[in-house]
């Protein structure tokens, strides 16, 4: 039976990395992964293994709690309370109610329910190219997915990505913050004219699938102003970018400024370092409106003692190993090395990022900034041959995305950029010889 299942082909809707020559990874440690022949790969992709693959403290915490008890949250348990308390210390005071779940998609689906229940409105504004999860409700608010399906639902509105490199308003615009926020205001007014009402503005604090974008500071405040005026709430999806990845702050929405506080924050991926865990944080008022329906919220695995022990251990490691400061230090160093390459290689159009969230936008020409899609794919393939795992994002699939485990270090950064330099130099020579 087991042998037979090994030979069953996977569903063609499930994709592998490097599908022409996929990797069989059998173990991992820190920022390195190992294939079945013991070959070591530098992992620049995996933002789930946040504090490092198989971190011993995290593994130990889960193992020890597993030996004692794992059950649902219908019983009192210290782990759940301690974990909510620890998370609350990382967030603004008003975000003090926590729901625990098992995946980012579950968290975003609950955020949608909370917003609708609280506002009694239905419509949602999202950014173009966004991805918020795989549930039906979230495919509906993910232009990255629904553009390839039957299309946009009438309750979904798509705002332009506040991308000052290749978006509608660029670095030379006199006030891109207001211009992008006004786009949202116009969408709201248009929806109102059609008799529709806005429940939420749903956004990744740093759009990652959209191309590793850093929205200009002040944009969220202006958008929140318009959305609140329309009776809606602001939902920050921190599923990829939270937990200190941006270095300077614990949450990426904090890059916008201290005066910005979302109404709902969703967390996933790095929260459990690979253990299925997710969370929604919100205000007392929103939680009260949700409870007022009288319909209980029950999630069989959400908030179980093992998940909470795992989450607590992740927070401990971030603190103990000063991973936020490390992300700033190594991220700044990596950005500098990449910017040096930008001077040398014209294919590098933009290097942007914060902490260990960095994007390198590859272009065919400086004027049109045409995405260098094929070149990006070729570079990724050649990097894999040199034992470096990296991937691309953005609508043009031309943005190299760096989101390594947070223990990624200076030596790794040097090795990575030296290898990129060599490959780009080879590609340029090959291009000249053709
Ligand atoms: C920004 C964002 N939100 C939500 C999700 C969904 O999370 P999950 O795959 O854990 O359901 C993802 C997953 O890639 C994501 O990138």
Automatic annotation (TrEMBL):
A molecular function (GO) term: lyase activity
Stated family: Belongs to the class-III pyridoxal-phosphate-dependent aminotransferase family.
InterPro entries for the chain: Aminotrans_3 (IPR005814), Aminotrans_3_PPA_site (IPR049704), PyrdxlP-dep_Trfase (IPR015424), PyrdxlP-dep_Trfase_major (IPR015421), PyrdxlP-dep_Trfase_small (IPR015422)
SUPFAM superfamilies assigned: PLP-dependent transferases
Lineage: Eukaryota, Metazoa, Chordata, Craniata, Vertebrata
Cofactor(s) demanded: pyridoxal 5'-phosphate
UniProt key word Repeat: no
Any single GO CC term annotated in Swiss-Prot or TrEMBL for this entry: mitochondrion
Entry protein name: 5-phosphohydroxy-L-lysine phospho-lyase
Cited Gene3D superfamilies: Aspartate Aminotransferase, domain 1, Type I PLP-dependent aspartate aminotransferase-like (Major domain)
UniProt entry keywords in alphabetical sequence: Lyase, Pyridoxal phosphate
One Pfam family recorded for the sequence: Aminotran_3
Source organism superkingdom: Eukaryota
